[in-house]
Amino acid sequence: MAPKYHAFVCATQRPAGHPRGCCASKGGGQPLFDRLMQKFQQGMLWEKGVSIAQASCLGACNAGPVLVVYPDNIWYRPETADDIDEIVASHFGQGQVVERLRFQP
Fold it and tell me: What is the pTM of this model?
């Protein structure tokens, strides 16, 4: 079965003070990816047709951590596990974009 959604979480790490910044310096993409993986392993994403992956730089370095959902081309700036849970329930579960977490890169 081809996934309905592809979710990418930035996992790029740069040294402190790097001029481009990085997702890891603002709380990190890794905990967000870990939360998505937890949901995936619980079956909450697979059943909704969601594929997840860690990505290298997504180009929104100073906004991170970021998550982008394709094919919808929706960019999120989640900060907490609760934000991930809301994206899973709303976007992946009901097809509703979580506007409060959305941003334009």
Answer: 0.85
Instruction: Look at phi and psi of residue 6 and say left if phi exceeds 0, alpha if psi is from -120 to 50, else beta.
Output: beta
Please report where in the chains the tokens 């997702």 appear, as a residue. Answer: 23
Is CATH 3.40.47.10 the classification given to domain 5-101? no
Report domain extents, the chain.
5-101
In this structure, which long-range contacts are made by residues 18-22, counting pairs with CB atoms below 8 Å and at least 24 apart in sequence?
Answer: 20/61, 20/62, 21/61, 21/62, 21/64, 22/57, 22/61, 22/64
**Amino acid letter at 22?**
C
Residue carrying structure tokens 């900060």 = 79
Q: DSSP letter at 6?
A: E
Amino acid, single-letter form, for residue 44 = M
Give me 39's structure tokens.
């949901």
Element (H, E) at 7: strand 5-10
Structure confidence by residue, pLDDT tens digits, 41-54: 887 677 778 899 88
